[in-house]
Structure formats: structure tokens, C-alpha cells
Predict the 3D structure of the following.
Amino acid sequence: MIKSDLQHIESELNEVISLFEDVEKLNIKHIFAKKEDRVVNTFVFVGKSFAYGNLMPKNLSEIEEKRLIKRFAKLSLYKALSRFYEKEMPWGSLTGIRPTKLAYSQLESTGEFEEFFIDTMKVSKEKTQLVKNVLNTQKGIYKKDDNNTDFFVFIPFCPSRCKYCSFITNDIEKTKAYVDEYVNALIEEIRHSAKYIKNLRSIYVGGGTPVSLDNKNLEKVLKELAKINTGVEFSVEAGRPDAITKENLKLLKDYGVNRICVNPQTFNNKTLQLLGRNHTAEQVIDVYNLTKDDFSVNMDLIAGLEKETFSDFKYSLDTALSLSPDNITVHTLCVKKGSYLSAETNRLSANEVNDMVDYAYNELTKNGYAPYYLYRQKYMAGNLENVGYTKPGKACVYNVDVMEEISQNVACGANAISKRVFNGGERIERCASPKDILTYLKNIEKIKSNKDKLFV
Ligand SMILES: C[S@@+](CC[C@H](N)C(=O)[O-])C[C@H]1O[C@@H](n2cnc3c(N)ncnc32)[C@H](O)[C@@H]1O
Ligand code: SF4
């Protein structure tokens, strides 16, 4: 933890600290000084002092000056920790979720982002190149337009909880008393929210595991969404192969769904069992064969899973590649507070996870896939990232829009966050629904009126 002269940025300085392992115990003190056109950030810990000075450009607006002061403080702290630990991080001093968003904004203001990433923010050349490739793949999809609308629906149920997962979702068996009521409230919200749609870009039903709903409830949701569909990309994060059946696939197809996820996470049966996924690698392949002619398919993999080595991950990636789905998304294990996994049960070295992620990048790009979106989270193994890869022309519009925050997102269901963008995303207003199902059910009228205030 840090004690800073600039209290309002303490939480962001703590984000820099979380890039390094075991730093919390250092009790860092931050001293900030500004004199004329110069700021000096000094950090004191373990009896040592690390000081860095920066020149402040002239004629800055108040907002720009605040932004720069924060950036210099974070950068200085990163440099101090990097020197102390003799270690550089792949994303340097960058702490945000969306490195590509920062690259776009740099490009707009200065005409370049690579030098800024490498020289100023200390991002590695490899990660800078990754960002450059993502921006390149997004050409033709990336469109700033405040009227563009993506429509999201959240289904917070799963066939069972996976050990690593910290998403807000519920074992459907344990919550079956509320499922019908949830679906009815959701449909009411979808109906109410249809009027906010301006130029529809995509529909995305996420989870959880949407196909853990029985066919009657799934059909109700799909029927409602079919009413708003204008022939756009329509994804369902079907997800768990043990919940995908011929019958629910037929429903998805009949109601216009054209993209689904069939997620292995890993192709090693031992790991799948350990994670509580209740399906085998063979089942993933069987389900994929059922789906691949009717849908564009995405497969999620996770690098750094409990007890997996580089060769386990390599096997999973090679298997996914041999199946040739349109999209492969490579996540890096993130040990969040809400998951059953604790940080202690999974201490793979950052180097090992790094090797996995590098292998995925090299193999996928060699085999005709390109990275098309990426994001980072806190508590990620090796401080790495999640990357979506796509075959040419098959990138998921929803993922690009959501990551870059360049369109409005009309989101329905518990834990959904609707967003309205202004001036191409320069300003964003949000409205969040309660995370828990019962609170969602009780507050549906309030949720609708809050969304009216946001969108109308
Ligand atoms: C919201 S989940 C839904 C997917 C679907 N229910 C399934 O399990 O196949 C989306 C993806 O997030 C990833 N994920 C979930 N928990 C994670 C964690 N702790 N670390 C890294 N990736 C994670 C998984 O790859 C998962 O497929
Ligand atoms: S990984 Fe998917 S199936 Fe497993 S608990 Fe999370 S959302 Fe549910």
C-alpha cells in the first residue's frame, strides 16, 4: 500500500504496485513536489529514496495538467519499482484495461502511439506490436458513431461453477426457483429497451451459460431478440459443451443466431476435471462438429490454468488450431477474489505463462489468425492480457465495440452495465443494474426508469 501526498491518485498508484508481486508489504511513501515547470516524484521504501523529475509543458488546461501529473507519478513509481526489483513488466507502467483505447487516443492527438508506448510508458516492443496488429485488424470495423448500438443480454446461470471463475453467475440447479421469474423480468426489460436502439450493430447474449436455460425459457429470450434483430451479428456465448444440445442449437439457428462460443478452456481432461467443468475434451470436439456448419464459432482457452505446464497449453492451442474455428480467444488466468482458486493454489511463474501467451501469438498468426481485440484485468498471471484472434473477415463486431467503447451498449439483465457514448466515446455515461438476481427482480421498474434517463 502507498501513502501519497496526492491522495486522490492513491488508488491508481496502488494499481502500479499490483503489477509487481509481493509489493504490498513495502509501505511506500510518495512525496510530490512542483516548482515552476518541473514536477518531482519521490518514493521512499526500505530506507531508500527514488526520485524522478519531469518537465511540464506550458499552457496546459487544468484537466490536461491533472492528467499529466498523474501519468508522471505512475511512471515514476513504475521506474522505482522496476529498478528496485530489477524487473521490467510487459506492459510497463500501463495499468488500464484497454491499451488499444489509449493507442487510438494517442494516434488522434499526436499522430503516433508506438514511441509513446515504448519510450514514455515503458511498454515492451512485443506488446506495442501486438497493439499495432490489433488496430490493423480493426480497420473497417472500428467506427466511431454515437448512434451505433450493441445490444447485450446477460444470463447469470451455469450448469455448475468452474473452480477458476469469478464471474457473477449461479449454479442453475441451486437457483432454479428464480429462473422463470428472471426470464420474465429480462423479457420485460428487453422489450422496454428496444426503443433505445439507433443503428443496431450486434446482439450478444452472454453469461454465465445462456444455454443452461431450458428450451422453453431460451426460446422466450431468443424470440424477443429476434424482434429487434435487423440481420446483424447475433452471438450467444453458449459456452459449456455439456449444456449444448442438438435441440438448443436448432433454436439458436431458427431465431437468427449466427455466432456462438464453444469453449474448451483446455483440451486436457485431467485439468477439465480438476476445474469442475463436467465435460471432456472429446465432448468439445463433438459439439464443435455439430455447430461449425451453421455458426461462426469462437473457442476460449486459458493460459496458466492450475497444474498445467507449457506443453499442456501447447497441446490445447494446437488442438484448437487443428479444429480451425473462426475465432480463438486466449485468456490469461486471472485469480480474482470471487473465485474458488486462491492466489496460493496457482503460482505459475510469470515466465511460464508468458511463454504460453507468446506461443499462442506466434502459432495463431502463422496460421492465418490475427489479433483483433485485447484487454487486461487486475490479478492476471504474469500481468499479461486476453487476446481475441480471428480468421480474416470473421472478427466479432461486438467485442471490438465493447473494448473500444465507441458505440452505445444497451445492456439487459442482472449485473448489466449500459453505456451511452458522446463525441465518439470522449464522454461515457453508464447505468448499472444490481448484480444479484433477487435485487434485480425487485428493482426492475427502477432499472427501466434509470435506463430511460440514460438513453432518452
Ligand atoms: C463469462 S465466461 C463465459 C463462458 C462460458 N460460460 C464457459 O464457461 O464456457 C467467458 C470466458 O472468460 C474466461 N474466464 C473466466 N474466468 C476466468 C479467469 N479467472 N481467468 C481467465 N479467464 C477466465 C473463460 O475463458 C470463459 O470462457
Ligand atoms: S467459466 Fe463459464 S460455466 Fe464456468 S462458472 Fe464461469 S461462466 Fe459458468
User: Anything to note?
Assistant: The domain at 1-87 is CATH 3.30.160 (Double Stranded RNA Binding Domain). The two ends are 42 Å apart (CA to CA). The longest helix spans residues 62-85.
